[in-house]
Amino acid sequence: MKKSLLVAAAAICFAPMSALAVSPPAPMPDATRLTTDIKVLSSDEFEGRGPATAGETKTIDYLVQQLEKIGVQPGGETKDGKRLYTQDVPLARFEIVGKPTLSVSINGKSAPLTQGEEVAIRAAQTNVDKVTFANAPVVFAGYGIKAPERNWDDFKGMDLKGKIVLVLINDADFETGQGDFGGKAMTYYGRWTYKYEEAARQGALGFIVVHETAPASYGWATVKNSNTNAMFDIVRKTPSEAHAPVEGWVQRDVAAAWLKAAGFDYETLKKQAQTRDFKPVALKGVTLSGDYKVKHEVIVSKNVIGLVPGATRPNETVLYTAHWDHLGVGLPDAKGDAIYNGAVDNATGTAALLELARLYKSNPPTDRSVAFLWVTAEEKGLLGSEYYANNPIFPLAKTVGVLNTDALDPSGAAKDFTISGNAKLDLLDMLIAEGTKRGRVYSPDPAPEAGYFFRSDHFPFAKRGVPAISFGSGEDLIDGGVAAGKAASDKYRADAYHQPADEWSDSWKMDGIVADIELIYGLGRTLANSGAWPEWAAGSEFKAARDATAAQRK
What we know:
By secondary structure, this protein is α/β, with parallel strands linked by helices. The protein has helices at 3-13, 31-41, 54-70, 192-202, 213-216, 220-227, 252-261, 266-273, 343-362, 383-390, 426-437, 459-462, 481-495, 511-528, 543-547, and strands spanning 73-74, 78-79, 82-83, 86-106, 109-112, 119-121, 130-140, 146-147, 152-153, 164-168, 206-211, 231-234, 246-251, 281-308, 313-323, 328-329, 339-340, 368-375, 399-405, 416-419, 441-442, 468-473. The chain has a 16-stranded mixed β-sheet that branches. The chain has a two-stranded antiparallel ribbon with strand order 2-3. The longest helix is centred in the middle third of the chain and has 20 residues, at 343-362. The two termini are 30 Å apart. 51% of the residues are buried. Residues 1-21 form the signal peptide.
């Protein structure tokens, strides 16, 4: 190492948070290697990288082989005294057997409901072999939220046992941009995961979420493809405490027709639901029926973990994360393609971590350790990251920060960058400073109402107090500006997100992904060579959890 670099590294080690501006060794991400990794991982041969499939086996094998080739140490579990590259993640798997029989009865006249087109009913996650319900009453319960701290209750004491409840996606502030839920940005109450959890707490037969593209932030194709295949969950002792028997989605116009048949106007009720005075309404004359078998089993999927030990403080860890999984094989699209390749989501992030591992191994060692964690079952509810955060290999109290990469943009180099959500923490300030050194500026999450903060693998760490961000490519493209970047993002969400069309294309521009990797590498290396411990901003809901472990970082 040159003397100048030694001096710089030493200076970083003792610098205060405000002084972490020493340039790291110049990184050199290789676009050709990245392209190869992405093309392999998103090829038809890998079958969409579904957990508990042959695609998982191929993906895990590929990642481990690459880590061995790079020379990164195993960072996973220890078995028979030997450290592995993997961490076993036990998961409960649920799948509807065949096509479910579903129908709606309106004033005594029954009509079938088409799975995947009118509704998307998920496999029950309550360890039952069969779900049968006949003429279940239907209730509209607004946004399906019970938030005592906001004096908000959409249920008003209505008995929901044996009933199917229609609820709106997002939370009550989405359309007005103001109100009791903090404005446009989605709270966790707006996520469909919360709504299903609330269904179980309310003792309902089930919640069916009404889909609308704007408040959901994705179209019906995404809903259909994500909810009609195998479902996964953590292994629970009492699954009925977290899941109602029936969970699913319904097209907006289908739900509106049910409401109209019962004498209600959809838009009028939705407007009423945006106030705390809203009361749930029963849809007289409207009932739902269903009959389908469910296969359930416990499988073991895998996280993959690589480690580059720190030279002087190896027990302190900077953690990079990305999810390796996608949707596997599912319903075919209009072209008959049933493989959900997941090239952008998230072969890009998976390949980025491999390239980051190569950069750390080819540059001088850092003082702190750097780990690379590829998690499973993100698409099934952040299950791999949730499992790791609950069973960490590297103690969370001494995890300096988590840098997540999910769906990097192949539209070309951008002048800006972003993160998911608008949480305030030192880690973001440091990322902004790193971007400034590279001539890039920070743009706040352009769609906080979409709730991306709750939808990426940094979230299980954040809620346990670990400073964590999910990096996002910018939209202000060098070639075409914001208009071109937004058009590309909108097209991807409409035409490819969670669809078979998310495939590698020769039209991809890798310079943007290379620049993104350079940026997050620079931040990670600065963290790994410093003695600083990033914190959450005062008032953050995650600060107390981090503060509780402060003594372990002295």
